[in-house]
Amino acid sequence: MMQNDQFLFQPVSQPVLRVNGSDKLFPVHRIYCVGRNYADHAIEMGHDPNREPPFFFQKNPDTLITGNGDFPYPSGSNDVHYEMEMVIALGKGGTDIAAGKALDHVFGYAVGLDMTRRDLQGEAKKLGRPWEVGKAFEASAPCSDIVPASKVGHPSSGAIWLNVNGKERQRGDLRQLIWNVPETIAYLSTLFTLQAGDLIFSGTPAGVGAIVRGDEMHGGVDGIGEIRTRVV
């Protein structure tokens, strides 16, 4: 075990999520996000909704906002969008995980927002560049507490929704996922060595749009929970 005086400067603290009904904390390793995993969202973003292989991008663990904290409007953008998502929390890792065994690796589920600097993402797309500037900025991953699968099972259906200032902006159903949870985990495990502590943001339904300072976002996934955050 390294002592603090061995470091040149104080190491950053371990990002964690609370676990509903427990005093234990979930240490976050990596955050993976699935792109265009609802057909209606693929269509609204101008893409073919057919079942093409899934693709992924990452957010850094320290981009999490927990406890319904405020979302600070980021610099460098005038077009910041919300994307409401179910979040999968892994309690066990591995590579080349079979879809039939994938749910055994899930510790629980949460509700999250994939906040996006859409203008910067759009510029990156045009230039064929990575999306990090549009996706992995500070505070870009508001997330609720985790609800253990031992309490809620493994939801494969149920409403996913988001209101902004009390008006509904997004509504879909988990049944509409192009790649379901077991398939997503199995495919992702062929590309990365998954570990306990990984989060997977599973995709967003149609209705994404811009927010401005002063807006309040309130959304949820039936059977899992809700999230609320104010734009400041």
Describe this structure in words.
With 232 residues, this protein is an alpha+beta fold. It has a single domain (14-230), classed as Fumarylacetoacetate hydrolase, domain 2, CATH 3.90.850.10. Helices cover 14% and strands 30% of the residues. It is built from 5 helices and 17 strands. It has helices at residues 39-44, 118-127, 132-135, 149-152, 181-188; strands spanning 16-18, 25-27, 31-34, 56-59, 64-65, 80-82, 84-90, 106-113, 116-117, 141-142, 147-148, 159-164, 167-173, 199-201, 209-210, 216-221, 225-230. Strands 4-3-14-7-8-11 form a 6-stranded mixed beta sheet. The chain is globular, with a radius of gyration of 17 Å. The model has no long low-confidence stretch (mean pLDDT 94).
Overall radius of gyration? 17 Å
Q: Give the CATH superfamily.
A: Fumarylacetoacetase-like, C-terminal domain
Helix % is 10-25%
| Residue fraction in strands | 25-35%
CATH topology: Fumarylacetoacetate hydrolase, domain 2
Strand order of the largest sheet: 4-3-14-7-8-11
How many strands appear in the DSSP assignment?
17
- Structural class comes to alpha+beta
Low-confidence stretches: none
> How would a textbook summarize the main sheet?
6 strands, mixed
CATH level 1 class label: Alpha Beta
- At CATH level 2, the architecture is Alpha-Beta Complex
Order of helices and strands: EEEHEEEEEEHHEEHEEHEEEE
- State the end-to-end CA separation: 40 Å
Number of domains: 1
Number of helices: 5
Overall pLDDT level: 94
Q: What is the overall shape?
A: globular
EC number: 3.7.1.20
GO molecular function, one term: acetylpyruvate hydrolase activity
Domain Fumarylacetoacetase-like C-terminal: 31-232
Protein name: Fumarylpyruvate hydrolase
